[in-house]
Amino acid sequence: MEHADWGTVYPWLVWVLTAMVGLGIWLSARGRQLHIRRLPAIDAMEEAVGRAVEMGRPILFVPGLADIDVPTFQAIAIAGHIARSAARYRNRVIVPVTNTVILTMAEQVLREAYAEAGAGEVFRPEDVRFLSGEQFAFASGVIGLMERERVASSFFFGTFAAESLILAEIGQRLGAIQIAGTPSTLQIPFFIAACDFTVIGEEYYAVTAYLTREPILVGSVWGQDICRIALATFILAATVGTKWLPPIIVKFLTFPT
Amino acid sequence: MLEPVRNLWLSGLLVVGAILVSGAVLAFLHQLAPPLRHRVIAVLTFLAGLYFPLEFFIPYHNFLTPWRNSVADFLRLMAAFTFGLGIINLLIIHGRHLLRWTSNAPFSLAFFSGFLLMLVIGLISHYKPTLWAQAVPKEAIGTVGFWDAAFRLFFEGALQSLNATIFALLAFFIVSAAYRAFRIRTLEAGLLMATAIVVMLANVPIGQQWLTGWIPEQSPLAWLRLEKLSHWLQTQVNAPTMRAIVFGLWVGSLAMAVRIILSLERTFTIGGQ
To answer: Whole-prediction pTM value?
Structure first.
């Protein structure tokens, strides 16, 4: 639909969900302790960074293939956290990118992360590299990078396509510890098969909240959880209740054709 | 809404003026104290991010709709500013390898060769196809000029073939990943293996025709046919699961978008944490 049809539930639903997320942020900002469950894949990130430090080999972080969009923003935010951890031990993080806008963002985020950790001189601008905008040219470049640099840990966060398994398998062959997270549902099975830890679905957007425990982010994740429970309840109730609901309500709940 | 300016001098003047104004705005932002600068950027982020949701949620054609194409063009222009950065980044990194003649220098030489070859051939075939070559007569159907042929040789003959080669690696990697990862140690792994076998067999003649092809379509046991089992698994089990994951992803994406537009996601914005 080109514009919102306020005669259907969908625009209203977006604002209700946004309000729930806002409620979580508000509650958390007021000091309320909100719980988010443990995520083993994210607990393993410190371990992965530590392993790379022990082996004296660099860390690889691939922020996916997409342009500037929400999953890529999340990937860059996660890259910043990994860089802060690595910078404490003066280890390198290599970030190959496929988009020039991401190149500038990633370089800035990593530079600041290293500077905050007091390891500004360790940061090498050439570690954030533009390889190619072509999918398989990028994949070839990344696997060449992994082989030459002998990375000890690989992080794959962002939107991926067919090259996901190529990247993960090469890392597997090198013996690197691999952690992946993607909103691309078709690539999740490949990452599960080839990576040591995988972040699935909405956990992808909870990573920064889990790592920083910043109240606003935790509140946002709590709000997301409430949204999902509400959505599931709503779908179940609407599906069961369609038989008894008046036609005008059913029309309101149905997607316009 | 915004039509291109036809006058060459006026359009040149506008470009130079836009660059000067942008430089002045950036210089002014750098002069501001960091807290004030962050506030200005947060306000600009909010206003910029407000356009598309506002244009969508106001029903029907509204006062913002005529600007949609112009705003999209503006976003593309901003991204185009960074286009040269990628090329400069590549040239610097590979140039350094060549100048110092490191162990990776041959790869950098290959990069420069491919880059310059495609650049030169692409530009000539597009802008000057008759350079040192004969023009192709209009009536000569199926004949291409020299530079067009050269471009096709490198693009379709080399680049696309190399793309297909890397893509083809997937077949082998799928086998190696499956062999390594699919060990039946738990009930879930066993279920996974069973469903994988059903779906795989249903897609090949040995499953469709030999194993269960003999079961009549109309019989009560027709559901045991592999293609029906596979269809059921994919539509009644796999598809709803994928949709459930997608629901979570879209809610998460909405939450992240709210944090970005309100500048609450500070982990990658200017100034960091």
So the answer is: 0.88
